[in-house]
Amino acid sequence: MYEERPSRVAGAVVWTKTPSAPHDALPVLPDGCMDLLWREGTLLVAGPDTHAHVPDGPPVTWAGIRLFPGTAPALLGIPAHELRDRRVELADLWSPSEARRLAGQVAASAHPALGLEELVLDRAAPPDRALRRLVAALAAGRTVAQTADELDLGARQLHRRSLAAFGYGPKTLARILRLQRALALARRGVPYADTANRSGYADQAHLSRDVREFTGLTLGVLLR
User: Which domains does the chain have, with CATH numbers?
Assistant: First the structure.
């Protein structure tokens, strides 16, 4: 079973997932975010995805904090593109002794999800307002060119900042955020054609192609 709640960390979501077949087979979809994870006493980092991720291994209990797009690299001290489509232990990014200390801190909390939240609250950097404006503009459906103009950035500069913050360029981020807009509408029962139009796709076929590319599934299967 999957449960989530808004975090005290700005823009973040705290979540837990316990084994509950058949939902364990559901993929984790690209969303522009990175997560700090807890699994059986180990801290891990989920990098930004460009395709659906299906956890392997036997079902276990997970806890996580999904950070607002672009905020994890400042916390971790590593560019997002170095973690693209990867799951790595925190000990591979920080010193093993520090990772063990933090894992012990999370284990000692009332719940691992709460411990993760406290960890991030203790270490979070001040919000980067430019990155938040970038995400807000693309999430609202503005083009990359319009977004660059709003932020007074050149195309190359915007691309470099996006790679470091999100793990991919602004066009890929825009497509992922558009897909998330569409999925939110479709889950509310909006007809697929209307979903495509309201999300900024050329037509329903365009939406279907993007769903297939990013998730490997059809929209109908994904929303069962």
Answer: 2-123 (no CATH), 129-222 (1.10.10.60)
